[in-house]
Structures are given as structure tokens and as C-alpha cells.
Amino acid sequence: MKWPNGKQMAVVLSFDVDAETAFTFNEKNKSRMSLLSIGTYGRTVGLNRILTLLSENDLKANFFVPGAVANIDPTVIERIVEKNHPIGHHGYFHERLDDLTFEEEEEIIVKGREAIKKYAGYYPEGYRAPLWEINRHTPSLLKKYDFRFDSSLMGNDVPYTIDGGHNEKILEIPVTWLLDDWEQFAFSAEPPIGFSIEEPDKVYRLWKAEFDGLYQDGGCFVLTMHPQLIGRSSRINMLNELIHYMKSKPGVWFTTLNEIEEKWSSGELKVEHSPFIQLD
Ligand SMILES: [Zn+2]
Would you state the pLDDT for residue 195? Predict the structure, then answer.
């Protein structure tokens, strides 16, 4: 991929502020106060640590906020917007989409979009599906509601386009489980959530190795993190160390998903198209 201004690769830090809605997939969880407090920590202590870290490193990042989180705590969006980081759509109650019809999904898109507009003052340009799963019809819904990019799929190391319905395309800026803090750090005993609590040093090595590979290949390093996990003290220190390492390499474009989309729509960034395959 040829990145703008002769850059070698792109780096995007993204944060999914799921907070309490990370656990609302199960009715019983709504009365588990300790479990929910993990989410509270994320939108308070964790988010504040992240915002400070970004300011100290003079970086912009993407924040995806479920509509219900915006309504529970309007200061979430206010604190992010105050620092000029773009806000994206991440469902309303962080609903998984794969069981939903077009109409049910549309209702969630509208509710989440309105909540962001209420507190951020603008409609979101970016979309990230809860749990990173979308339906075949989702891109056309995104086009209908003026989204400019999606960041939920895993089909490449660099941005590409997918079908947005009516012969339109929408930009996909891909993610990967490899670059997600959930698999490394998420844990709850009851209900059982997550896998194991990894050491920050191990996660540093995992992410640095992928950064080094993508640096060599000219890829797009999109790191996805959750304030309730990465916002813990030891992990923020690890992220700070990783940022310093990435900054020490020449030719790294620290950017946002929104800026990547702007370069694509202005014609400065050329990407390939990848249609959905039909298996039935
Ligand atoms: Zn999420």
C-alpha cells in the first residue's frame, strides 16, 4: 500500500468504551453490581488515564461509544470531545447483530446515532460493530445513515472497500483479534468471561511483534482497546512504552480512522475492493 506523504505504515489507536454495556448481553448481569462496576471503572478511571496518556503523547485516537453509555454518563463523550478525538458508533446496548433482522438493526443504528449527536454535537462518521460481527446487509445500512467507514472486519492488513448496496462502496479499516486487549486481559469469575489475565510484558511483545511485521510490510496497525482493561495502571504504562517504541521508528503515520477515510475519499489513498462471498 502506498501511504500518503511517503509514510511507511499507519498506526491507529482505538478504544471501545463499552463500560457497563459490555455485560448487558445477559439479563442476570444487570443485577450483578460487582460485574457492572468493572464497566464503571472503564468509563471513569480508565478513560481518564487514556485521555491523559494521549495528551502527553500528542496523539489523536478513535473512541467508539454505545448510545446507552452516552446516556448513562454524558461526561464520557464530553471528556473525549473536549480533547478532539472522534467518536464512533458502537451499538446502543452493545447488541450482537448476528441474530437481528434489518429492521431491528436499523433501530439500533438510529438510537445509537442520536445519542452521539446529543452529546458530541455531530453524527458519527465511523462504525464499529459490537463483538466485531456484522450482517451481509449492514454496510447498506451504514451507507443509508451516512457512515463513511466501518472498522469491524478482518480481511486484510490494510484498508479495503466492501459493497455498500446500490453499487456504492464503503471503506473498511480492518481489525484483528491479535491486536485486541480483550483476549489478553478480560476476566470475570462469574459469569465466566475472558480467558486469562496476561502480563503486560507478554502483551507488549505480542503487539510489538505485529507492529514490526506491519512496519516491514507497510500495513495498517489498528489497536483495539477497552478502557476497563487497558486503563489499569500497569497496562497504561505498557501502552505508553509501546507508543514510545512506535514513535522511535521513522515513517510511521499516527492517525485516526477518520483521517484515513479522508485520504481515501480525496483520492490520495488507493485501496482494493473485496466483495462479500456467497456460500449458499
Ligand atoms: Zn465493544
Answer: 82
In a domain, 279, yes or no: no
Helical pair 75-82 and 102-120, crossing angle rounded to 10 deg: 60
Looking at the 3D structure of the chain, how many domains does it have? 1
CATH number where 148 lies: 3.20.20.370
Interval between CA 65 and ligand 1 midpoint (Å): 8
Residue 62 lies in a domain: yes
Does residue 74 lie in a domain region?
A: yes
Residue 131 alpha carbon to ligand 1 centre in Å: 6
**What domain range is 233 assigned to?**
4-273
CA of 269 to the centre of ligand 1 (A): 28
User: Please, which residues bridge with residue 13 across strands?
Assistant: 223
Q: What is the pLDDT of residue 280?
A: 79
CA 86 to ligand 1 centroid distance, Å: 16
Which grid cell is 176? Answer: 484483528
What's the CA-to-centroid distance between 17 and ligand 1, angstroms? 7
Task: Return the bridge partners of 150, or none.
Answer: 127, 172
* Residue numbers of the chain with a pLDDT score lower than 50: none
